[in-house]
């Protein structure tokens, strides 16, 4: 597979930034909203935004169950920030009724790094990303409290887990799509190619 087709779940969040980063990482990228659009994808990105809203809209648009099934069946997925929350099997502090797609055996804490005005940037060393640390943009970012035996920790910051990979699924607490550095997206595109 030379140029994989990767969707960006376009219910809410920073969809455009992920589309740009994926195109720069040599993927054919397009927005995805409806369940029937999942067919034919080589991979899918779940953007940053607000996980409670993404959860609600996923149910409303009928993609919650089909996407859960696709991830279980091996669709490569990458989530940033709210997307990381959506890929967690368990949220420590969910809003009532909040659901996730799951895929990574981890427990996440929403807004763990503080509120909007406590957002920050920090250098983060990510396993599998060559050429030095990436600039992590943390905006009302979650952290990962704990991971199961199948999950591999890719990065930590301030003593907390901020990037994880398990099988076909990968997630970061921070937003590489906002920096113009496409190495995390390249890592995901390489995983998508390897899976195809
Ligand atoms: N705190 C947000 C949530 O719970 C995530 C913030 C983000 O994606 N920048 O979804």
Automatic annotation (TrEMBL):
- Give the matching SUPFAM superfamilies: Class I glutamine amidotransferase-like
Please name the catalytic residues of this protein.
Answer: 81, 175, 177
CDD domains reported in the protein's UniProt record: GATase1_PB
Keywords, sorted A to Z: Glutamine amidotransferase, Hydrolase, Lyase, Pyridoxal phosphate
**Record flagged with keyword Lyase:** yes
Transmembrane regions: none
Q: In which pathway does it act?
A: Cofactor biosynthesis; pyridoxal 5'-phosphate biosynthesis
Q: Which family does it belong to?
A: Belongs to the glutaminase PdxT/SNO family.
Please report the name of this protein according to its UniProt entry: Pyridoxal 5'-phosphate synthase subunit PdxT
